[in-house]
Amino acid sequence: MASSDPSDTDLLIIGSGPAGLMAAAWASQYDVRARIIDDKPDRVQTGHADGLTCRTMEILDSFGLAAEIQKEASADIEMRSWGPGGFAGEIERKGVVVSQKAGVSRFQQCLLNQGRLEELFQNLSERGGKIKVERRVKTLQLSVNKREDGSIDNTAHPVLVTVQHGVDSNRPHAADRIRKSRQLSPNESFSNLVEHAGQATHNGLETIRAKYVIGCDGAHSWTRAQLGTVMKGDTTDAVWGVMDIVPLTDFRMKILKHPINV
User: Fold this and answer.
1) Phi and psi torsions of 213, nearest 5°
2) Average pLDDT, 10 consecutive residues per value, the chain (262 residues)
3) At a CB cut-off of 8 Å and minimum separation 6, what does 214 contact?
């Protein structure tokens, strides 16, 4: 029998960027109790990761979103790379890269503001009142209850995530305030802090019990850190600058400019 406790959920999604919202969109298509939380007050308003590959467009088409995106997006045909020229203050073209090979998909790679994509996913997830993003919610602690033999009972709600609602990014969260008021060490169990707070609603504290948790909270993932998971992959020292502008230029867009030595 499904739990009627609002703090019990089948799936908790941490982070409401494109990855988290896509997970919420999938969950909204099935009989899954799901929640999605984020510590930010609103979705992205300016450009971040705005490129959509043809394979991404195929997935978006399965949600019924591709046609609307095609109406709004800019086709991404090629990238031209520019760098310092032979004379001071001049630049010259260094190369041209075709963004997508011909015939690989019925969809063309394109560019659309990440905030708009998030809005489309959010509207889809909320349709019928299913899954609404809970904002200004800060994650504080994650733990997993295990059996004596070390196994996890996924028929229960073994993942416990303590959060604080109504977060103001300019103020310390409840855990910090309680620690300071009691002069506790940073290593004291947070469960003790919650017990001391008496689940006081003015602190906005809640312990969410989930069968599964998906961490979609970015490159510096809090979820990954809580689980002690090491991020595998490569990093780069390349410096990127992104501008939202209307250029008055005869350059073919999109353009990648290499910086002069800095």
Assistant:
1) -130, 135
2) 72 95 93 94 81 95 95 88 80 86 93 92 89 95 86 83 83 46 42 39 81 92 91 78 71 53 40
3) 11, 12, 13, 14, 20, 23
